[in-house]
Every structure is written in C-alpha cells, then in structure tokens.
C-alpha cells in the first residue's frame, strides 16, 4: 500500500488554472464519490481551497492511482489531462505525509503560517470521513496531521510576524503604545498611500482616526468612507496634542511636522509617547523629531528593517515547525508498525492462555480432590507465569519493530514462538520485479539514512 | 559541605545553565534547548525548595531567619511565580528577565550565610506576618525591577532602530510600564504593611517605637522612593526612560537595604 498526494498549488500552477480545477460543493462531493467507488484508491481525502486542490490517497499501485486521479480531475474540471499533468505534483510515502503536515501548519501557504488552512484541512477530512472515504489508516494519519497543525499554531509564532509595510507600521506603533485599541491616530495625506494606511488603522480598531489633507474636500470623501474625521493641515497642528500615532504620507516637498511643532506638542503631553511613522519619500517629518523625549520616529527604511526581522523570525519558527513535522511523521510510522505487531501479540497471548488452560485441565484430571478455591489459586499463579514470561518479549518485539521500521523482528518472533508469520499485503500483491525494485530502493534509501531511525515501509 | 551546600550549588548551577539555554533559545529558537532550560529551572526550583526547607527546619524558630534566608526566599518566590505563570500563559522572555534578577538574589544569598541570630523572641506570630509581608513586597519589587529592565532594553531597541529578535520577543513599552507600575504598587502596599507590623511588634516586645532604628529608616527611604516613582508615573500617565532608570535606582536602594543595612534592633534582635 502507498500513501500519495496528487495536487496543484500556487507553487505549480497559475491562478487561472487553479480556479478551474478548484472543487466546491457538488464537484467536491462528486470527486469523493468517484474515489470512494474506485477499486484503485482504498482511502481518500480531497482538499480544495482558493490556492490548492489536492487529493490524498491510499492505493495499492501509485501509477494506477495517479492516472485515475488525473483523469477524474480532468473530467470534473474540463482541463485536458496533459495540461493537468504538467501542473500537478505527485508525492509518495513520507513525503506525502510530511506535505500534508506542512500544509496544515501553513508552511506551504502563500502567507507562511496562516491559520485558515488548518480549518480547511479539518473540514476536508471531516467531509471525507462522513462520506466513508477514509479508513483506519487515514483516520489516524489526519489525526496526526491536524495535531501537528494545532501544535504549530499554539507552540510557535510562525503566523504572527507580518511581512507587509502596513502591518510592520502597526507592529512598530504597537511596540510603543501597546495595541491600537483605544488610541487616537492621525493620517496626513489622502493620496494612495495615505488612504491605505488610514483603512488599515481603521481596521485595527483605533478609537479615533483623524485624516488631514491639504485639500479638505478630498480628505472628507475618504474620511466618510472609513468613519474618520477630516481635518485641514492648519487644524492638524492643534489636534496633534491628543494623538498617539501619526502616519504621514504626502507627496508635497518640505516637512508636514517640523521639529518645533513636535517640541510644542511633546511639552503638553505629560510624558505620553508619540509615534511618528513617515512613509513618504521624500520624507515628511523632520528627522530632528527623533531626538525629542517620548517621540519615536520611523521612516520607510525602518519599516523595511522590521519586515526583514519578521521574515527572519518566520524562518526560525518554520524550522521549529519542520521539527514538529518530522516528529509527526515518526509518530505515524510508529503507529503503523504497532498495528502490524498487534495481531502477533494477540496470537501469542492466546497461545499462552491455551497452554495454561490445557495445563489446568490436566492438573484437575490428575488431582480431582482440589477444591474450587485451590483451582482458582493455581489458575491465578499459572496465568501469572504466562504473563511474566511474555511481558518482556512482547515489549522488546514492539520496540525493535518500531526502531527498525520493518517486520523482520516480528517474523523472527513469530517463528520463535511457533506462530503464523505476519501477513504482508505487499508480498501477496506485488510482482517479483516490483519487489526487487522495492528492495533495491530500500537498500539505496537505507544507505543514505544510516544512523536515523527507520520509517515504516508504507512511508519509504 | 553537607546537604544545604549541595542543594545551593545544584540550584545555582541548574539556574545558570538554564538561563544560558533560555538566552540561546531567544537568540536562535530550538525546542530541545527550551525544554532543557525549563527542566533545569524545575531542577533549580526543587533544589531551592529543599534548601529553604533544610534551612528553615534547622532554625530554632521560623522568625530566626538571616538576610541570606530572606534573599533566598524572595528568589524562590520569583522562580515559583514565573514557573507557574509560564506554564499557564507562556510569558517567554519575562521568564528570562525575572530569573536573571532571581539568580542574582540567590547568589547574594550564598554570600551572606553567616549572620548573628537571637534564639528566642516573643510575639512570634506578629513577627512572622511582618516577615512574610516584607518577603512578598520585596518579590513584587524584584518583578517590577525585571519589568523596568525589559522596558529599558526595549526602549533602546526602539530608539536605536534595532529590529532584532529581542525586539520582537519583548512586550511593548506600554505593557512593560503597566506591569512595572502594578508590581511596584503591590510592593509599596505590602512593604507599608510590613513596616507597620514590624513597628507594632517593636512596641509590644521592646516597649518602644523603632523609628530611629537604621533598618526602619532605610526601609522607609526605599518605600518613599517607590512612592515618588508611583506619584510621578500616575501624574505623567506613562513612564519614559528617565523614570525607568529611577525605578532601577529604587531597586538598587532596596537591595542595599536588604543585604547591607544592619537588621539588628537596639535590643539586638535580628
């Protein structure tokens, strides 16, 4: 069996193709129904968002399943299969599981660390589960995927470091005044940059937003759109006294806020800090303002510096998430191995109990005078012998199977205790040539993985 | 060396290594280092708890404490509060800054282990209340000091336009200012109560008010310094760099009072 993902995202396909392939409502249900009715695909989950369409599948043959999924997507979207093949990716085994986890963590999103994708992944799994497209394998795998996604959100700050100029400006102002709620902001300039800044500040929930412009009418139009108060540049000077944050974005030469004006403003503020964000080129605010007490002045270069710091921080946090992904893949691999050892353990316990029953029957036959209480005591002790004998071998075979990642130890264990060999579906279904290729690829793979714990064969 | 020495050394080593790992985790995040740092903080907590227990159990009376015991108790309170709060709210760099202060106090405690003590004191209950209030007040001031330090560091980043990882991790100036104000207000209230209970105890036991006792005068000066900080802060509505430097000076005065001013009363009581 192979776990695989066939899909397209912003990495592999342009937006016009992505929107044609995107599956919503009936198309999504149709694809799930087709996958569920197929004999090629054993389990499946379909994830479709504005930036990606992916089909996660558990299949006996990767080649056949890949072909089937491409045909299905081509038929549903009307995009030629050849074109689809050029813009989709196919990942298998460990890469497919790790990819699902990266997607759930937002590492594969356009805005790295965005949190919406985790909800979309959860919904995709829930829909597939309700449609009966998932079984034990995918139920467990997606449980692990969602768990890793949740951990990435709660244990790291991968999504909390904005990388746009307007967010960087808000972040910088917040580092001084501590959040924009309840604060008074002033935007100078009603041009394109000023309008963007004003809209962003309004969206951040400032208590009062003032909009000053040389032409009052232009400011009034924009102010009525976003619920701000329009001012002329002359009135702005008086209003500065109550303001916490100033964003200046005019295109006119000269300073909108000179050092003298800022000095007068600071005098009456009783130590309350004033953040001046100058996003205009040439600059609008006199650089000498930065020397004043309780005034924090930043220009476009500073905002770029904040963005650089945020990008680096995201990279650092992404490295932490990658560690979580690796540990999630490992946990899923361990679970897969355990599932194959469990029947063996059950068989061994049953054999032990059967031997104990035979011994008890023989004992009762030879010692008929034993009372019911004596029999119970002897039964309890013989069972204790069986349990104590089996405890360590069972523990060791579980640990060895998980650390080796294959069933060699389990098979040896079965032979030692005279049990039936561990069933291996691959051996039953795959041809000799495929098996040879598998052995070779494992040997080559294992040569490069020396020193690392082995994953379950399904993930290799 | 004995068990107390072993516990003290273990606590200091675990504490120092843990803070180094926390620092390293802030500079370059690594889950293993972070977990190891928290585990070592817990080791330091266990060692300090054991040390406090050993020290207090060997005293003839709970109130027969030394400056070293008090410094250790304040350090232990800070460590405990940061561990408990971090487990619930993940306060990140606050753990680092608060525990740097706490480690400093623990190191001071190690250097002040020899102290003259009286072995019998009347009106013990009142004195225990006084000690507990004073220890809690000093712990609150120590937290306030940690927040003031963080404020100064963050202000430096914002003034010099240094947008590094510390800048991203540290809370905003407004939040640090509020926390420092809150911690200092709590500390002032507790210290005032501690001074009041101490004075009443002096009246009951020594039959006179200890207004000219050096310890009382030094404590009153520290308290007044903090009250000045609170008044200026409330009037100004926000703290600037100079006020935070003054806050640090207040804590330096408090440390001087705690560790260097004689705690002996006119009757020779510690």
From TrEMBL, chain A:
CDD domains: NAD_bind_Glutamyl_tRNA_reduct. Keywords: NADP, Oxidoreductase, Porphyrin biosynthesis. Catalyzes the NADPH-dependent reduction of glutamyl-tRNA(Glu) to glutamate 1-semialdehyde (GSA). Possesses an unusual extended V-shaped dimeric structure with each monomer consisting of three distinct domains arranged along a curved 'spinal' alpha-helix. The N-terminal catalytic domain specifically recognizes the glutamate moiety of the substrate. The second domain is the NADPH-binding domain, and the third C-terminal domain is responsible for dimerization. NCBIfam families: hemA (TIGR01035). Its EC number is 1.2.1.70. Pathway: Porphyrin-containing compound metabolism; protoporphyrin-IX biosynthesis; 5-aminolevulinate from L-glutamyl-tRNA(Glu): step 1/2. Residues 171-306 form the Quinate/shikimate 5-dehydrogenase/glutamyl-tRNA reductase domain. GO terms for biological process: protoporphyrinogen IX biosynthetic process from glutamate. NADP(+) binds at residues 189-194. The keyword NADP applies. The active site is at residue 50. Residues 321-419 form the Tetrapyrrole biosynthesis glutamyl-tRNA reductase dimerisation domain. This is Glutamyl-tRNA reductase. Residues 6-156 form the Glutamyl-tRNA reductase N-terminal domain. InterPro entries: 4pyrrol_synth_GluRdtase, 4pyrrol_synth_GluRdtase_dimer, 4pyrrol_synth_GluRdtase_N, GluRdtase_CS, GluRdtase_dimer_dom_sf, GluRdtase_N_sf, NAD(P)-bd_dom_sf, Shikm_DH/Glu-tRNA_Rdtase. The record marks 99 as: Important for activity. Belongs to the glutamyl-tRNA reductase family.
From TrEMBL, chain B:
GO terms for biological process: cytochrome complex assembly. The keyword Transferase does not apply. Coiled coil: none annotated. The keyword Secreted does not apply. Signal peptide: none annotated. Residues 70-261 form the Cytochrome c assembly protein domain. InterPro entries: Cyt_c_assembly, YpjD/HemX. The chain crosses the membrane at residues 6-24, 36-56, 68-85, 92-114, 126-153, 174-201, 213-232, 244-263. Pfam families: Cytochrom_C_asm (PF01578). Keywords: Membrane, Transmembrane, Transmembrane helix. One of its GO terms (molecular function) is heme binding. This is HemX protein. The lineage of its organism: Bacteria, Bacillati, Bacillota, Bacilli, Bacillales.
